[in-house]
Design brief:
- The structure is a single chain.
- The protein is mainly alpha-helical and 91 residues long.
- The protein has one domain.
- Helix content is 76%, strand content 0%.
Length: 91
């Protein structure tokens, strides 16, 4: 086996690997960094129990919207990773 041929194939594999890693790291860099601190305590709402429940409902709705946005971004990253796998197998 020709040494140059074996080296060329290894080089292509390394190049493909670095491309995939670069795209994944680049896409992760666009995600906001968040600490693993526990969720902040909800603001104390004074008033009737109904008003308190409405305030909690609004906070929960906001949290669900944030989680939906994060889930959407993770789905996009997964699709990008799948595309890279397919493109990597072609070369």
């Amino acid at each position: 086996m020709d040494l140059r041929l074996a080296w060329g194939e290894g080089f292509r594999e390394m190049k493909r690997f670095l491309l995939v890693v670069g795209v994944i790291v680049g896409s992760m860099a666009s995600l906001p960094l968040r600490s693993q601190d526990p969720a902040p305590a909800p603001a104390v709402v004074t008033g009737s129990p109904l008003e308190q429940l409405k305030a909690i409902r609004d906070q929960n709705a906001k949290l669900l919207d944030e989680q939906a946005a994060i889930l959407k971004r993770l789905d996009e990253l997964e699709k990008t990773a799948q595309t890279l796998k397919v493109l990597g197998k072609r070369t």
